[in-house]
Specification:
Blueprint lengths: L1 H16 L2 E6 L9 H8 L2 H4 L2 E6 L7 H6 L5 E4 L2 H7 L4 E6 L6 E6 L12 E5 L4 H9 L5 E5 L5 H4 L5 E5 L3 H7 L4 E4 L12 E5 H6 L1 H20 L1 H12 L5 H15 L11 H13 L23 H56 L5 E6 L4 E5 L3 H5 L3 H6 L2 H4 L2 H19 L7 E9 L5 E12 L5 E10 L1 H36 L9 H18 L3 E8 L2 H8 L1 H16 L7 E6 L2 E7 L3 H16 L3 E3 L2 E3 L3 E8 L6 H17 L5 E3 L6
Parallel strand pairs: 1-2, 1-3, 6-7, 6-8, 21-22
Antiparallel strand pairs: 3-10, 4-10, 5-8, 5-9, 11-12, 11-15, 13-14, 14-15, 16-18, 16-21, 17-18, 19-20
Helix pairs in contact: 2-10, 11-12, 21-22
């Protein structure tokens, strides 16, 4: 007996003097996404459970699942990819689904994309593990698109480098709202893809070795999440003080609000998870060909409620009298069974009384509501109550509307859609998904005087004491006027968009006028000055060469004096066309002034630039410009200079090339000369 008491005292006192060192691997950088774990550390919940917890940020290229399976971390945070790993035979175990609805979304520019069909053939920034978005695109029949590696930078979407990007509903929308970017969200839930978000998990080996310790860790983590959701501002300040200043306080609080919406702690116990939902997630992976058909996830979900007694207690009990235990257990079982039946009977009576009282309160409130309030008996699919406002909204009396079936109360198209929504929600409720208790939809209903009205409907399934849906309570609001206003607004927006497009085209044309030479269409000197500065900076930063060629027509004044300025202009246009057809895409052709042209060549060394200039000289010598009854011919001289040997600043490089050009002129013209420091 003394030994038993000693062992019990050791079990009770152990956490006070020996904390187990464990690593919790996060799946991103420090932010409110992991608020519950910060709270569990700060409030001492982990310490009270016997753990000293180290939180580890995710490093680039790492996978939290691999880190936990390899033993580099004891626990981890991952998303619904846990179902994929389990279906592949990896021993991962989901301890608690912290976020009930995945925050993963697609973000687009609202001015360019209004429907998801528009993403066909687009550029979408995704990470390879965002499988629910791939499944979403497949179900929407978006099969032709280019996957762009993820930069995690919203500027790529803002500046149009991609047409869509993945993001978290808790994160990127804040950044886009802050800069006033007109974004639109596409959510996989629109096509019935309901993945879990962040989920606490571990390795099956750890559970096998110490299931009670795992339960203790899980309970402490959930307690931390309860605290974090109740004290978001405190946790935001804690993150800024101890973990990261990557996000500003307002950003963290935005994340907190969105995270709470996705966790739904008022409806779903934090950490709750459903086997059927995990199975659906695994089957979605099967749809994508990532696991074989009919995948199994046996062992994925941790049994958090089982409490196993230590083996020594069982031995002690057996030694003390197994017979007494069995008799007592039998008596206790029947006593509890009797009590449970009594409570169930009483509960049913209380429920019926409360139901009648509740229905009466609803009825009194509904009678004075401008919206149509109604209840539908799910057993016979008949309306048991319709508020008087129905006559104002649809023209039918209460008696007429109450006698209608669902088929009578809805247009055929709306009826099919509503029946589908109800069936889906009833299925999810049966699987334990309490988020399915509420549903919303926009429907179309016939009016007594002809035509239809548009209504926004919000419905809530009512449950009996056994948790079974028995009725649907709904509120219908006439939104016909709003729909008309939205239609008019869409038309106005479309007109505005066309006007903005026209303005944008005019702005582009105006900009072109400011940077282009009106005669030749080449860039002008102003553009050259801006571009040369930028390209020299890039060359300095990235360490590549840059060459500059100044080309001048020989004896051009004679052409103007002999044939007139129109002939000279024609010669300049033909020269510009010749050069433009023979330069690289990255080269910049500018009219420097009069008969001088400059060609800027990034990533081009001096020797290659001299070869290119020599090629242009030969082609220019072969030009024959027809002007009236005359055929004009001319030659050109060119000077070449290169960064960094001949100049590191724009003025230095231009001066070097100009000096080389004068060297070509003084050497007899119709030649190319590279700059040499020995030149005067």
């Amino acid at each position: 007996m003394r030994l038993v008491l000693f062992l019990l005292s050791c079990l009770v006192l152990a956490p006070a003097w020996a904390l187990e060192q464990v690593v919790l691997q996060l799946n991103w950088k420090h932010q409110f996404q992991f608020a519950g774990y910060y709270a569990a550390i700060e409030q001492g919940y982990f310490r009270d459970a016997g753990f000293a917890v180290s939180l580890r940020e995710l490093q680039e290229g790492a996978d939290p699942v691999d880190l936990v399976l390899d033993g580099e971390a004891d626990f981890g945070v991952a998303a619904s990819e846990l179902a994929l790993h389990r279906a592949q035979g990896k021993p991962v175990v989901a301890l608690a689904a912290i976020v009930q609805h995945s925050p993963l979304i697609l973000l687009v520019n609202r001015r360019k994309v209004s429907v998801i069909d528009s993403l066909q053939g687009s550029r979408i920034m995704l990470t390879p593990h965002e499988t629910e978005l791939f499944a979403y695109l497949r179900r929407e029949e978006i099969t032709q698109f280019t996957t762009v590696p993820h930069s995690f930078d919203t500027q790529d979407l803002i500046e149009g480098r991609v047409d869509a990007m993945s993001g978290y509903a808790t994160d990127e929308p804040y950044l886009l709202k802050k800069v006033g970017f007109p974004y639109l969200v596409f959510n996989p839930t629109a096509v019935g893809i309901h993945f879990y978000g962040d989920t606490l998990f571990t390795n099956a080996a750890r559970i096998k070795g110490s299931p009670e310790r795992v339960r203790a860790f899980r309970a402490a983590a959930i307690k931390g999440w309860q605290y974090a959701l109740a004290h978001p501002e405190e946790i935001a300040d804690l993150i800024l003080a101890k973990y990261s200043r990557r996000h500003e306080r307002e950003h963290l609080l935005f994340e907190a609000n969105e995270l709470k919406r996705l966790m739904q702690p008022d409806l779903v116990e934090i950490g709750q998870q459903s086997a059927s939902r995990w199975q659906q997630i695994a089957e979605t992976y099967a749809e994508l060909g990532m696991v074989p058909p009919k995948p199994t996830i046996d062992g994925l979900i941790f049994d958090a409620d089982v409490r196993k007694l230590p083996a020594w207690i069982w031995y002690a009990l057996a030694a003390g009298g197994l017979l007494i235990l069995m008799v007592g257990a039998a008596a206790l079982y029947f006593a509890r069974l009797n009590m449970r039946l009594s409570r169930e009977v009483a509960s049913r009576r209380e429920f019926e009384v409360a139901l009648r009282a509740s229905e009466e309160r609803y009825r009194q409130l509904a009678d004075f509501s401008e919206d149509v309030i109604w209840t539908l008996d799910l057993r016979n699919m008949r309306f048991t109550y319709v508020s008087p406002s129905i006559e104002k909204v649809r023209g039918f009396t209460v008696a007429e509307a109450s006698a209608q079936s669902i088929e009578d109360a809805l247009t055929p198209e709306s009826c099919v859609r509503v029946q589908g929504i109800m069936a889906e929600h009833l299925r999810r409720i049966a699987e334990g998904d309490l988020t399915a208790l509420s549903a919303t939809a926009e429907i179309e209903q016939p009016h007594k005087r002809g035509g239809t009205i548009h209504a926004e409907v919000a419905g809530t399934f009512l449950l009996d004491p056994q948790g079974q849906p028995y009725a649907l309570l709904g509120i219908s609001r006439d939104i016909s006027a709003r729909r008309r206003a939205e239609h008019e607004l869409r038309q106005a927006n479309e007109q505005l968009r066309r006007q903005l497009d026209e303005i944008e085209k005019l702005q582009v044309a105006l900009k072109e006028q400011t940077i282009r030479d009106s005669l030749t269409g080449c860039f002008n000197r102003r553009y050259l000055d801006e571009t040369l500065e930028r390209e020299l900076s890039r060359s300095r930063r990235e360490g590549y060469p840059l060459s500059l060629v100044i080309l001048d027509l020989d004896f051009f004044k004679q052409i103007n004096d002999t044939y007139g300025h129109l002939a000279g202009d024609r010669a300049l246009v033909v020269l510009a066309e010749t050069l433009r057809a023979d330069i690289r895409q990255e080269d910049v052709l500018c009219r420097y002034g009069g008969e001088e042209f400059v060609i800027l060549m990034p990533r081009m060394p001096l020797d290659k630039a001299v070869e290119r200039a020599e090629s242009w000289r030969c082609k220019i010598a072969d030009i024959r410009v027809v002007f009236g009854n005359f055929k004009l011919s001319f030659t050109a001289s060119a000077g070449v200079a290169a960064y960094p040997d001949h100049g590191k600043m724009p003025d230095e490089l231009t001066h070097a090339a100009d000096t080389a050009l004068y060297g070509a002129k003084n050497s007899g013209r119709n030649r190319v000369v590279a700059y040499s420091p020995a030149q005067p």
